[in-house]
Amino acid sequence: MSTFGATAGGGVERQAGSEADHATRAWFKGWLTERGFTVREDAIGNIFGLYELVPGAPYVLMGSHLDSQPLAGRFDGAYGVLAAAHAAHTVVRASAEGRVTPTLNVAVVDWFNEEGSRFAPSMMGSSVATGKLALAEALAVTDTAGITVAEALGERPEPVPGLEVASYAEIHIEQGRLLEEAQTTIGLVHATWAASKYRISVNGAQAHTGATVMEDRRDALYGASLLVVAVRELTELLPEGALHSSVSEMEVLPNSPVTLARQVNMNLDLRSASEEVLARANELLAEKFEEIEAKAKVSIERRLTHAWGLVDYPSGGVELARESAAALGLSHTPIMTVAGHDSTNMKDVVPTVMLFVPSIQGVSHNEAEDTRDADAVDGVAMLSDVAARLVSGELHEGDSYRLA
Amino acid sequence: MSTFGATAGGGVERQAGSEADHATRAWFKGWLTERGFTVREDAIGNIFGLYELVPGAPYVLMGSHLDSQPLAGRFDGAYGVLAAAHAAHTVVRASAEGRVTPTLNVAVVDWFNEEGSRFAPSMMGSSVATGKLALAEALAVTDTAGITVAEALGERPEPVPGLEVASYAEIHIEQGRLLEEAQTTIGLVHATWAASKYRISVNGAQAHTGATVMEDRRDALYGASLLVVAVRELTELLPEGALHSSVSEMEVLPNSPVTLARQVNMNLDLRSASEEVLARANELLAEKFEEIEAKAKVSIERRLTHAWGLVDYPSGGVELARESAAALGLSHTPIMTVAGHDSTNMKDVVPTVMLFVPSIQGVSHNEAEDTRDADAVDGVAMLSDVAARLVSGELHEGDSYRLA
């Protein structure tokens, strides 16, 4: 799978809707079809592989995403899709051989555009499927070259009714180094860090970089740089490790070698496992905005685009996963996720299990991202056992959810 | 002229080789042809308007540039070309009427791509014409869309022998506020500030913006921001007003909302009227590079791309201009230029006069850039008088220079 969009540095580059993403998706559909799964695509490009074990019953859905960041690793998302496919196939065979007694059907999913690097927002496919984002709005999003999501997806098949889902499971690399340091194989994800995400515009005035005296300058890039530094230093004003902060995207206007920037547009991301810490960080940030406006003679517009508190995963799923890990003799620990995942959307509509395997040195969104083979294989065994339990009806109390 | 590439904010946008630049150039060629000038273009797109007064004699050349920065003002460069055209036309009529006795011919020039915002380096046309930049190298430069200078110029006329030039004169807006504050009409440019210009790459490592613990981050954008702030703060470590410093251009890779930057590429510009101050600023900057590499866990590559000390304009040209201003009763003062101009190249090959008129509040590279009508008109009178003196043979001691 990692030959699609392979990079010289040993990683992959498969941004959503790119040629490499489409190639991986085509390969994935072939894999499913060869093993007797029925392939369906919805209007936002999510690919489903369905296997009916109990005619007419709702589905246990498992999956993650095949798209990647630019110059990314081979595991982020792709591991979860491949693990889900193998787990589903294992359950299908176990059912045929009478080792599992299914009460539900099983399906695998590649959620379109989880990464959001080419088309914002991230988790686009699962957001549309769970009714959190309107289809038309998502299809109209453009990349920096002006290409829409609809264009990047290309010809769409006729829409079919959304899948009826009873429960969801996802496995992902940790993207941190807690599991590796604890020498633990399986992370049982029980909550998501709280987060505040801003869209920032720093507004100054164009001026000649050479001729303009320093006191007359209203340099938007100086103001933006003060803000990037302040955002980083927020972490030093709070207990060690309590706050993660970043700015990673920046547009400088006019971006000329001899004209001071009139405007800088950028993102700003604060995350914490503590809602109190996050609230304090937001207060401190507000003070910084004012200091910087005065110091650099700029104005700063900020728009809070995403904000959520500490969000729990349903405890039933965590408990099921704990039992499964114990039964398989795999070391395990409760863990929080800092990053968002498609399961963040799915957990709001159906019982959900979210699992982690270790990342070597916590490296992620980098070509050097890696996971030990033994951990990757243990993760598949773990997800297969969870799948067998879910297909047997565990966590299912009769409710189901029809995806958009 | 300012209707070409006019912007909603009252300025112009005519980057080199753009449709608006070509439209202005076509208009300018028409203006020259209507008044009996012979139009020639050289291989790098410099446009010359020639008027022969003394068959076979070398030329007094006057001009500036018609291209602009993005969202720029109406005066920067364009005023100098229009003033030169009017001054040349005035000299032609004065010769015909016997009020001037020419010993040299007169020509006007629009130097291609003085601004360098779309195609680096700046002063491209005059650099090629004076042999400082190879034609082939200049033609192969690309903009961010991959378009070459050769493509942006379009079909080129057959090359003709370069113009034989005896002397050069240019008038420009000050782009500072010294003249306005001194209530003086004409600046007699006698020297250029010393400058050091760097190309910088800050190298870090891609990582997840959320999941990566702060101590593991090697965030290139954090390093770059520390550097932008340090460059600004250098000015506070030196005597007030002694150093102008800036970063105005930045490329962030991969520029994704959830991936820390692996690399930031940017410019860095230091200028001073004192070579000692500039040397000290460069020393302080070297210390900052090391501090920032350690603090942000990044490596910084820097390449000094342009460096020059305090450069005098030939004293003969300054003295001629002083006599001319005195004769016309225009207030005048010696002044240095912080910005580069095409005359910076021309002064190295022929006797040169460089003049400034006031900029309102020193605003430049901004749509609000302006000059009072009375000052603009006085500048044309001044340049016309300088032109008459030059065409009469002042400053010309027999040497001339053939442009490439």
For the secondary structure, the number of strands of chain A is 15
End-to-end gap of chain A: 28 Å
At CATH level 3, the topology of the largest domain in chain A is Aminopeptidase
Unreliable segments of chain A (pLDDT under 50, ≥5 consecutive)? none
The amount of beta strand of chain A, in percent, is 15-25%
- Per DSSP, the total helix count of chain A is 11
Seen as an oligomer or otherwise, the chain set is homodimer
- CATH top level label of the largest domain in chain A: Alpha Beta
CATH architecture of the largest domain in chain A: 3-Layer(aba) Sandwich
Fraction of residues in helix of chain A: 25-40%
Largest interface: A-B, 69 and 68 residues
Would you give an account of this structure?
The structure is a homodimer of 404-residue chains. By secondary structure, chain A is an alpha+beta fold. In chain A, strands 1, 2, 3, 4, 5, 6, 12, 13, 14 and 15 form a ten-stranded mixed sheet that branches. In chain A, strands 7, 8, 9, 10 and 11 form a five-stranded antiparallel sheet that branches. The mean pLDDT of chain A is 97. The longest helix of chain A has 22 residues. Helix content of chain A is 33%, strand content 23%. The first copy, chain A, has two domains: 266 residues, Aminopeptidase; 115 residues, 2-Layer Sandwich (Alpha-Beta Plaits). Chain A starts with 18 loop residues before the first helix and ends with a strand. In chain A, helix 2 links the parallel strand 3 and strand 4. At the A-B interface, helix 7, strand 8, strand 9 and strand 10 of A face helix 7, strand 8 and strand 10 of B. Chains A, B: GO terms for molecular function: hydrolase activity, acting on carbon-nitrogen (but not peptide) bonds, in linear amidines; metal ion binding.
